Automatic annotation (TrEMBL):
Native source organism of the sequence: Drosophila yakuba (Fruit fly)
Segment forming the signal sequence: none
Membrane-spanning ranges: 30-52, 64-85, 121-141, 161-182, 251-271, 283-303, 362-381
Family of the protein in this entry: Belongs to the insect chemoreceptor superfamily. Gustatory receptor (GR) family.
The gene coding this protein: Dyak\GE11557
Protein name: Gustatory receptor
């Protein structure tokens, strides 16, 4: 099966959920735009109705954090739909640039890159489908197969969650393509390093060492030319990555903030459950654990997929430093490449200049998470000690 099959299938699914531009023009494009707007309005209306109907008696700060998920979902989905309707040229332009970068590879390397990308796409697509299918199933069981209630709940919670997960994949997979090209460069440099081994039995004290080494490594400047082409391709990869990040920056920032707030609320609600367990609500606990896994996984995935690019550049630096230099031209080429990589490594990518996109930011996310959760727990304990509490069979009722 063609390795591009899975990418095309994922893009078709994204178009159905209104988060990717239509590949057609004319009437079909208008139909797709209207469908995307319908999904957006459907989610907005459902979220607003849910906020208005939320009347549970809980502290104001907890209620505020709980309800912040809805405007976060609404804004994030609006950004995705905007990209799907009005930002079509930019999306296809970036795809074309990535294809141009990959077309510069040799035939075998190009096939390997497309094969690995197809496997990665299939893996993420199946994982996403299984996870969200499980969330929908648990939601149905939680509401005891009540069709109207389950439909409303899935429309407000799971439908936006699926669209945002597809939006994350839409950003992550092209970045993974760029990572594969960098990885292919690293493999080529390692092959060059192996070729630099002198003939069998020749030592550095042998008079034949330098001449044999120069003839093997840099005949006609071939090695320098290859490394120079890699340097140009690496520069183009960085430009494409920055362009792609500037397009998805607001979406990534909102996604990370929204997920962080949702994790805080879910942690607090799970703490309340284990403080006073009501085992008839075990299904709801499973639902909260799934939601916690989804938001935590999104934060880690967004940060990790960008850190892979940084790690690959560090690996390129290491292999370049291990190469033996036998000509002034090769030395200049390697030094320029190293300088370019070092400058890129020293300037980590940031989404809208707010969030540094690598896993080192996890420490900051965890610190904010613990501070908010502890704050909510202190408010809950203070309310209980001041007002007292009576336990109803399904929830806490403040008296």
């Amino acid at each position: 099966m063609d390795t591009s099959y899975w990418e095309n299938l994922l893009l078709t699914i994204n178009r159905f959920f209104g988060v990717y531009p239509s590949g057609k023009r004319g009437v079909l494009r208008w139909i797709h735009s209207l469908w995307s707007l319908f999904l957006l309005l459907y989610i907005w209306i459902g979220s607003i109705v849910k906020c208005l109907e939320f009347t549970t008696e809980i502290p104001t700060i907890e209620k505020l954090l709980y309800l912040m998920e809805f405007p976060g979902n609404m804004t994030t989905i609006a950004i995705l739909v905007y990209y799907a309707i009005l930002n079509r040229p930019l999306a296809h332009g970036v795809e074309f640039q990535i294809d141009c970068i990959i077309s510069g590879l040799k035939g075998k390397a190009k096939r390997l890159v497309y094969k690995r990308q197809g496997q990665r796409t299939l893996h993420l697509m199946v994982t996403t489908a299984i996870f969200h299918g499980l969330c929908v199933l648990v939601d149905v069981v939680n509401y005891k197969f009540d069709f109207s209630t389950t439909w409303s709940s899935n429309s407000v919670y799971n439908l936006p969650a699926i669209m945002m997960s597809l939006g994350v994949l839409q950003y992550a997979l092209p970045v993974h393509f760029l990572w594969l090209v960098l990885d292919q460069m690293r493999m080529c440099l390692k092959e060059l390093k192996l070729q630099q081994r002198p003939p069998q039995g020749t030592t550095k004290l042998d008079a034949r060492y330098e001449s044999a080494f120069a003839a093997l490594v840099d005949v006609g400047g071939g090695s320098a030319l290859m490394i120079e082409e890699m340097r140009s391709a690496c520069n183009l990869i960085e430009l494409v990555h920055n362009k792609y990040l500037s397009r998805f920056g607001p979406f990534l920032v909102l996604n990370l903030i929204n997920s962080l707030i949702s994790i805080c609320v879910e942690f607090y609600l799970i703490f309340n459950f284990f403080e006073t367990p009501l085992w008839e609500e075990t299904v709801l606990l499973v639902y909260r654990l799934l939601w916690l896994t989804m938001h935590g996984g999104r934060i880690w995935f967004i940060l990790a997929v960008n850190e892979q690019i940084l790690e690959q550049k560090c690996n390129l630096c290491q292999v370049l430093n291990e190469l033996e230099v036998c000509s002034a031209r090769l030395e200049r080429t390697i030094n320029r490449f190293l300088l370019q990589l070092q400058r890129s490594i020293d300037q980590p990518l940031e989404a809208c200049g707010i969030v540094t996109l690598d896993t080192r930011s996890l420490g900051g996310f965890i610190g904010v998470l613990m501070a908010i959760v502890i704050f909510l727990i202190q408010i809950g304990l203070g309310n209980k000690s001041l007002m007292g509490v009576a336990l109803n069979r399904s929830n806490w009722v403040y008296v």
